[in-house]
Amino acid sequence: MGNHLALVQVVDATGRDEVFVGRIREDISVEHGIHLWVVSDNLRKGAALNAVQIAELLHRR
């Protein structure tokens, strides 16, 4: 059959800091729109953002 590309899956991002984009397609419902398939470890990213926000708050004091 044709060329089959493996999409990134949530399991690929588990425990990693990176955000993975597995597919980019045109969104014909919106002018200049695009669809992205994006996966990340939300808990890891959320924890990192929380740590940065706490550090910024402490730095302002």
What descriptive keywords fit this protein?
61 residues; alpha+beta; 2 helices; flat
Plain-language structure description:
By secondary structure, the protein is α+β, with helices and mostly antiparallel strands. It has one domain. It is built from two helices and two strands, in the order H-E-E-H. The chain has a two-stranded antiparallel ribbon with strand order 1-2. The N and C termini lie far apart (62 Å).
Strand content: 15-25%
Tell me roughly what share of residues is in helical segments.
25-40%
Order of helices and strands: HEEH
Compute the number of structural domains.
Answer: 1
Q: Tell me the Rg in angstroms.
A: 17 Å
Oligomer: single chain
Kindly report the average pLDDT value: 86
The number of distinct helices, counting runs of at least 4 residues, comes to 2
How would you classify the helix and strand content by structural class?
alpha+beta
Distance between the termini: 62 Å
Total E-strand runs: 2
Structural shape: flat
Low-pLDDT runs of 5+ residues are none
Largest sheet: 2 strands, antiparallel
> What's the arrangement of strands in the largest beta sheet?
1-2
Summarize the structure.
The chain is α+β, with helices and mostly antiparallel strands and 61 residues long. Helices cover 38% and strands 25% of the residues. The chain has one domain (10-60).
